[in-house]
Amino acid sequence: MRNAVCADAETHCERWGDQWSTPEHIVSNGPFLLQKHENRVISVLKKNPRYFDAQNVYLETITVHHTESDQTAFDWYEVGKTPMAWRCCAANRQGADTASLGTR
After folding, report:
1. Disulfide-capable partner of 44 in 36, 48, 51, 85 (CB 3.0 to 4.6 Å)?
2. Torsion of CA 3, 9, 10, 12, to 10 degrees
3. What local confidence, expressed as pLDDT, does residue 39 receive?
């Protein structure tokens, strides 16, 4: 028997193709929604008003700066540029577009 959630995700990916993970098409059920994403640069998450416990989510947005350098991430943190920096994965360092990751 197929899992209904996986079946829906598969249909979603088929419908939107390589665009399934763009902010306007991505499906999320957590406390934050993807508002903006620039591959290997920045991701901006915004509070999900439909999250079941939204009244207890105190951050309105989260900005995540991407870098391939641990030193750069540390420097950004130290100077207050960001409370969080995301180290790009190996696929990103090889030039893969994250919009195509996870598709068939």
Report:
1. 36
2. 150
3. 83
Higher pLDDT: 56 or 78? It is 56
In this structure, are residues 103 and 19 in contact, taking their beta carbons and an 8 Å threshold? no
User: How would DSSP label each residue in 4-62?
Assistant: HHHHHHHHHHHHHGGGTTSTTT----SSEEEEEEETTTEEEEEE-TTSTTGGG---SEE
Compute, in degrees rounded to 10, the torsion defined by CA atoms 17, 22, 25, 31: 140
Show Cβ contacts of residue 25 under 8 Å, excluding neighbours closer than 6 positions: 12, 16, 19
Torsion of CA 45, 27, 4, 9, to 10 degrees: -120
Q: Are 82 and 76 in contact (CB under 8 A)?
A: yes
**Topology classification of domain 29-97:** D-Maltodextrin-Binding Protein; domain 2 (3.40.190)
Q: What is the pLDDT of residues 81-94, one digit of tens each?
A: 877 666 665 444 44
